Amino acid sequence: MTAATETDRALVDRVAKGDRAAVRLLFMRHHARVYRFVARQTGSEMMADDIANEVFLELWRQAPGFEGRSEVSTWLLGIARFKALSVLRKKKEDWIGDDDAAQVPDSADTPEVVTMKQDKGAALRSFVDALPEEHRTVIDLAYYHGQSVTEIGEVLGIPVATVKTRMFYARKKLGEALKAAGYDRGWP
């Protein structure tokens, strides 16, 4: 079995036995996803970089206790969420969020449509940021990290029914905010 085809769970088993190369492979596979998740949670790229690295140190420490009840990526995002929340609780100062990533416009769109999409995207991002933390996190995991309802429940440590309820109310609030701001559903 090559390193490219070895499963994440097999790599965690190797990490549990002290294999540093397995940690490096898991880092290469999952660092970007963990980093992006933490950056959204904290609003700081610098904090995200530090926390993402800590997640892989924690992987090294906790690998012997990994029971495989969830995917490795879900487990890592759970560790990342806990670490991000811990750092945010310790830091009482306000963090200035990084600029939203610039979206690459579709080359077939006219400049007017591109501008409309950018405006609506920025508005939607600000509406998501204004949601209560429990709703914002569910939306972030679902739409920005592609997590399933089950995986979100595992990351957050809540029942699937609670995830669905939070998702329902978050979407409802986003729809109402978009309508109040004069935006139609869907893209231009």
Automatic annotation (TrEMBL):
Q: Does the keyword Transcription apply?
A: yes
Q: Which InterPro entries match?
A: RNA_pol_sigma-70-like, RNA_pol_sigma-70_dom, RNA_pol_sigma70_r2, RNA_pol_sigma70_r4_t2, RNA_pol_sigma_r2, RNA_pol_sigma_r3/r4-like, WH-like_DNA-bd_sf
Family the entry assigns: Belongs to the sigma-70 factor family. ECF subfamily.
Name the keywords, alphabetized.
Sigma factor, Transcription, Transcription regulation
Domain RNA polymerase sigma factor 70 region 4 type stretches: 123-174
Protein name according to UniProt: RNA polymerase subunit sigma
Which one of the record's GO molecular function terms can you name?
sigma factor activity
Q: Which NCBIfam families match?
A: PRK12515.1, sigma70-ECF
Q: Which residues form the RNA polymerase sigma-70 region domain?
A: 26-92
Q: Which organism is it from?
A: Mesorhizobium sanjuanii
Q: Could you give a single Gene Ontology term from the biological process aspect?
A: DNA-templated transcription initiation
